[in-house]
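hey
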């Protein structure tokens, strides 16, 4: 995102597909408003090929450019002003399927698109656009039983305040006063916060659909802020995990176990994270193997066999990324772990990069593997 962070996290905005090196295909004129538009707004629009079209009213402006991350049109998509003072333009090629952050630069100033809904990413509220995916049904809002996502405020003596988390409880949770559930602690990436996995990632809908199809056992998901966004470019080597580890393990987890019907204990807990949240997951799971039995890094690096000191404590290591990231590295790391006697699974999301479609698909693949024991 922007220019603040190391390779593990810098690609969180990239999501834009690489454009063809040959002559671009003819653009189909079947544009429809993006599903993430503000109520009643026609633009931005997307077509069946994945192109996006933008319209910005700025009659006095000298330059308007739409910036869709680090990929796609290098330098952004420049818009052209018509006789009415309205700026319009279309991406020079199709975008990857799924969710993307973007913003508009007008005469050097950075603004959000007034036609689009906003999502917290790159350490600010950014505009969002959704490119319909061929496999979008797994995170669609369907006519199935739905779980509940609620905000909690938990005391944090180490930071001297109360902190926020969001908790997903599966369908049927409120109907039983006795059934208990395992817990996945799920972390966002750099520049995001605890709203990302449900707003951008649609984690709750993914779980609802998987549970309805009988593909995963129900479990609770807890999402909290990873305290990562003060990390500046070149400063990742100085990132200290201990403050967040204290918040997560010593403050949030006891609160969740007290206020929700969890199954306490290491064998019933998982930790996963995307991008920098994956880095946090790795650091905490290696430092505290007594806390989690399931580890998952989603575009967030890998584990080496020698890093797993007691293989009997690890029920699963899940590694994933997009096919435009480091698929060979993810696959080979999982192979090495399996050869060392660790239950490891790799997943590569086809035709995606460091973006939410990769992580949505990763959660879909991960969830059925959790808490099998």
């Amino acid at each position: 995102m922007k220019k603040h962070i190391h390779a593990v996290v810098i690609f969180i905005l990239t999501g834009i597909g690489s454009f063809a090196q040959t002559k671009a295909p003819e653009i189909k004129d079947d544009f429809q408003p993006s599903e993430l538009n503000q109520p009643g707004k026609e633009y931005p629009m997307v077509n069946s090929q994945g192109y996006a079209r933008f319209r910005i009213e700025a009659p006095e402006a000298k330059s308007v450019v739409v910036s869709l991350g680090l990929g796609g049109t290098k330098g952004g998509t420049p818009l052209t002003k018509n006789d009415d003072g309205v700026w319009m333009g279309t991406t020079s090629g199709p975008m990857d399927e799924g969710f993307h952050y973007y913003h508009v630069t007008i005469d050097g100033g950075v603004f959000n698109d007034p036609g689009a809904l906003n999502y917290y990413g790159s350490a600010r509220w950014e505009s969002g656009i959704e490119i319909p995916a061929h496999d979008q049904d797994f995170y669609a809002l369907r006519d199935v039983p739905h779980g509940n996502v609620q905000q909690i405020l938990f005391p944090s003596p180490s930071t001297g305040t109360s902190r926020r988390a969001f908790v997903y409880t599966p369908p049927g949770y409120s109907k039983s006063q006795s059934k208990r559930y395992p817990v996945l602690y799920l972390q966002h990436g750099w520049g995001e916060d605890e709203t990302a996995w449900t707003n951008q990632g649609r984690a709750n809908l993914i779980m609802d659909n998987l549970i309805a199809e009988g593909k995963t056992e129900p479990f609770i998901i807890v999402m909290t802020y990873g305290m990562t966004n003060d990390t500046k470019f070149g400063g990742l080597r100085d990132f200290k995990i201990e403050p967040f580890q204290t918040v997560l393990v010593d403050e949030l987890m006891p609160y969740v176990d007290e206020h929700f019907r969890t199954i306490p204990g290491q064998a019933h807990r998982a930790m996963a994270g995307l991008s920098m949240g994956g880095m946090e997951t790795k650091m905490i799971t290696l430092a505290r193997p007594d806390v989690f039995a399931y580890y998952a890094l989603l575009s967030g690096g890998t584990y080496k066999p020698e890093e797993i000191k007691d293989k009997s404590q690890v029920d699963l290591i899940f590694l994933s990324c997009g096919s435009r990231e480091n698929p060979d590295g993810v696959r080979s790391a999982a192979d090495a772990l399996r050869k060392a006697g660790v239950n490891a699974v790799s997943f590569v999301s086809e035709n995606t990069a460091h973006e939410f479609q990769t992580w949505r698909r990763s959660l879909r693949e991960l969830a059925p593997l959790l808490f099998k024991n």
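The CA atoms of residues 33 and 45 lie 4 Å apart. The first strand starts at residue 32 and ends at 33.
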